[in-house]
User: Fold this.
Amino acid sequence: MYRTGESMKKQLRGYDPGALKAWLSEQGEKPFRAGQIFSWVQKGISSFDEMSNISKGLRQTLAEAFILDNVKIIKRLDSQDKTRKYLLSMHDGEIIEAVLMRYKHGNSICVSTQVGCRMGCSFCASTLGGMTRNLEAAEILGQIMVIQNDIGERISNIVLMGSGEPLDNYDEVMQFLRLVNHADGLNISMRHITLSTCGLVDQIKRLADEKLQLTLAISLHAVSDEKRNSLMPVNKKYNLDSLLEACRYYTKQTGRRITFEYALIQGENDHASEAKALAKRLRGLLCHVNLIPINPVEERGYKASSNASISSFQKVLKDAGIETTIRRELGSDINAACGQLRAQHIESVSEDA
Ligand code: SAH
Assistant:
């Protein structure tokens, strides 16, 4: 899979203590070392030599079998609003983006789950070149570790809203969630994690059965199948009725409120009649609506709705008793806002490298 000489090595950041134990016994090593190694890796160390309570011999064996430092920062772009976009390179040279948002109450990070995306939403930059590959759990976690090390501060909130469709990479995303939530790892609670999906119904139900306390966000963006089909091809496979039924199932299984994301595009989906239809569809569902003025993506030509239409859209929903907020757009001056993340221009990277 890797283009480099390290092709046979596994990424250590993806190993939980159980998997480490299994590996250690295969090597004839003491299984209790698993906990020690896991703690070191989860501290974000970038060299095996930092494992001071592990023998030199075992460190050597680890270094022969595993890659530790799997994600590297190649560029930082600072926005005027303190949002920072990171271009990160994976071990095989693939490049992804992650975004750091600094708030008074803590640091939040938006991570990617795939290189590119194959969902094809018409308003989103991440999908322009299709999907190159899934990210491994170790690489999703690695994004957090390198950024945490870079700023010297803890990350407290995670949103899986970077490039890629998390539920299209289900197993690796689940492993990532287990690792990041682990008491001996970064120990970030599920309640501080939001997973956003374009609506893969079967996987939403599977996720519901895991009964995790994470927040599920649904990228809705339209209230009729006809309109949603034209914006989001995934709707042709899983229509609105089946999606909302899966959402009801999710709230039943987890007791968690769903967030619906609705990006307002001028003249496309922002009419008051659509707000009314949305309110009707969401009636009785434990949810919250997040309205997002669409961020321009050059290739697409969609315009954001006017402030007046956004406010009136919000008012219709609120009057119908649905809690609705308008998302403050961070990072749009550096193309780090929602839907602007893409497998970035290699040219701009090599200038810096
Ligand atoms: N694939 C997942 C997560 C990545 S997209 C998903 O679809 O939810 C993260 C959020 O940004 C989604 O709600 C997505 O619909 C939204 N988004 C995509 N392009 C956008 C744009 N140009 N402006 C505003 N939001 C956008």
